[in-house]
Amino acid sequence: MFSQHKKSHSKSFVKVLTLIASISAVLSPSAIASERVVNIYNWAGQIGSTTIGDFQNATHIKINYDVFDSNEVLEGKLMAGHSGFDVVSPSDSFLARQIQSDIYLPLDKKKLTNWDNLDPNLMKLMQTHDPDNKYAIPYVWMTTGIGYNIDMVKARLGENAPVNSWDLVFNPENMEKLQDCGVAFLDAPTEIFASALQYLGKDPNSTNAKDYTGEAYELLSKVRPYIRYFHSSQYINDLANGDICVILGWSGDILQSRDRANEAGNGVKIGYEIPKEGALVFFDTFAIPKDAEHVDEAHQFLNFILKPEVAAQVTNDVNFASANGVANNQFVKPEIRNDPAVYPPEEVMSKLFTLKVQEPKIERIITRTWTKIKTGK
């Protein structure tokens, strides 16, 4: 009896040891290290509704996903080093400057079997910022323009309100009349100054310091008292809810506001216009930082995004024009593909401009002058 009882305990003890060993193996540093993950830092509101889940299901690679709402925030993390991200989404002009700082890995195009789905014409445009398309893939593209509450603006400025002109937001007389219903600007100094310079008939990529500290500063200072806030994502919900009536913002975000208002059935009618004087067109891209820890997984994510049906879902969900030519031709919904606010017609495209990389001296002047405008000091 005693012998059998001892054997029974011995067997139980062996089972416990086996269980402990298996748990230890699961929790061991080597096992944890082998978990496949990719850490992504993308613009707020700039991913398809099922993109993350679809990728994880297809590859069994876990996504850690975080968002930002300004290039300056992203750049600060990248330039400080050890950001912890494997895939990031700089806009094209910031990408160009960051390439000069040698913070990105060249893409391994052998791992990007869906590369040829990208629109060749857009790829040529991208080469202005990324020669030979070496470091990044263009993800989506959009314009900077004017979003507005149709009824609110009409009530204050009449049927002929200049919604198709920068005059709506840069003329103090118009801004004073719109103040009560709420006007917001992007917190994006480079883009706001470029838009102001375009309105003034100057080079939006001016390298003359006095253009920023002189006429552009004067222009923005005069309308500053009528701007409710500067933010690069808050306006999406505010415009949709009728809490503001005008935004100098990004096309995709404004069209998201329009869709949210329509879905809510709240009676808010939103329009988007690319100013007739000309406006900024830009790409948001995906690139891999040099200190990325999961490079293979990063390439798998990029290759997944390059699938036409995946790229199209992003555009169909968030109204950002796709850089994927096959997606545009085959999978983007016709009502979006034919929306001039998403895909501007040729005569509008001809008046669009891109941002160039500025020398550090001009960048510092832009930053300092922007701070003065925002604080009113």
Automatic annotation (TrEMBL):
Its GO biological process annotations read: polyamine transport
GO cellular component terms listed in the entry, alphabetical order: periplasmic space
Task: Tell me which family the UniProt entry assigns to this protein.
Answer: Belongs to the bacterial solute-binding protein PotD/PotF family.
Q: What does this protein do?
A: Required for the activity of the bacterial periplasmic transport system of putrescine.
| Name recorded for this polypeptide | Putrescine-binding periplasmic protein
UniProt cross-references to SUPFAM superfamilies, sorted A to Z: Periplasmic binding protein-like II
Q: Say which domain of life the source belongs to.
A: Bacteria
Please give the Gene3D superfamilies that the UniProt record associates with this protein: Periplasmic binding protein-like II
Major site of localization recorded for this protein: periplasm
Xref: InterPro entries: SBP (IPR006059), Sperm_putr-bd (IPR001188)
Q: Which UniProt keywords apply?
A: Periplasm, Signal, Transport
**Native organism:** Frischella perrara
Q: Which residues form a coiled coil?
A: none
